[in-house]
Amino acid sequence: SPAVVAPIEAASTPEPTATLTPEPTAQPEPSPTADADLIAQGVQVYRSAYCGVCHTLAPANTRGSFAPNHDHVATAAQEHLADPSYNGSATTVAEYLMESLLTPQRYLVPGYELSPHAMPAFSHLSETDLNALVAMLSAQE
Q1: Distances (CA, A) of 101 to 3, 106, 137
Q2: pLDDT per position as a tens digit, 58-81
Q3: 103 φ, ψ (degrees, to nearest 5)
Q4: 123 vs 10, 19, 35, 68, 105, CA distance in Å?
Q5: How far apart are CA 108 and CA 54, in angstroms?
Q6: CA–CA distance from 75 to each of 20, 26, 44, 58 (Å)?
Q7: In this structure, which of 63, 77, 106, 123 has its CB flanked by the most CB atoms within 10 Å?
Q8: For position 103, what pLDDT does the model report?
Q9: Tally of CA atoms within 13 A in the half-sphere of 137 that contains its CB
């Protein structure tokens, strides 16, 4: 006689449940892409405003010689802020750079006081363009 096989019942084991613990809330960090985009925009503003006619800046591929070199302008700005003859109102590199763009005669970089090519004010630029220019120059350490 044939053997009778009883059906096997499926085991009813409960699905494991995962308990998710919330990640600690981290402070948002600036996006490297956003920073790179802002710096790239600053380079475009630098070129379109013809800053490179007078200034040298490697990222903009300019070789001007009438005015201070901008390749390390953020470091130079820190030095200018500490200069006893600095009479502007800026206290940070970004403020100094903005002041230099809007009221360049407030502080003349040593060695360029007698230049026949005075830095013009760039107050005609939009706030967006000025901020991009300052961000890009601030990155030139």
Answers
A1: 97, 10, 11
A2: 999 999 989 999 999 999 999 999
A3: -135, 70
A4: 79, 57, 23, 20, 13
A5: 15
A6: 47, 30, 22, 15
A7: 77
A8: 97
A9: 31
Question: Do 63 and 52 form a contact (C-beta atoms < 8 A)?
Answer: yes
Residue-wise pLDDT tens digits, 26-51: 444 555 666 999 999 999 999 999 99
CA distance 132 to 42: 4
Q: Enter the pTM of the model.
A: 0.75
State how far the Cα of 116 lies from the Cα of 28, in Å rounded to an integer: 47
Helix 73-82, helix 93-102: angle, nearest 10: 90
At CA 91, angle to CA 51 and CA 26, rounded to 5? Answer: 95
H-only helix segments in 4-140: 32-48, 73-82, 93-102, 127-138
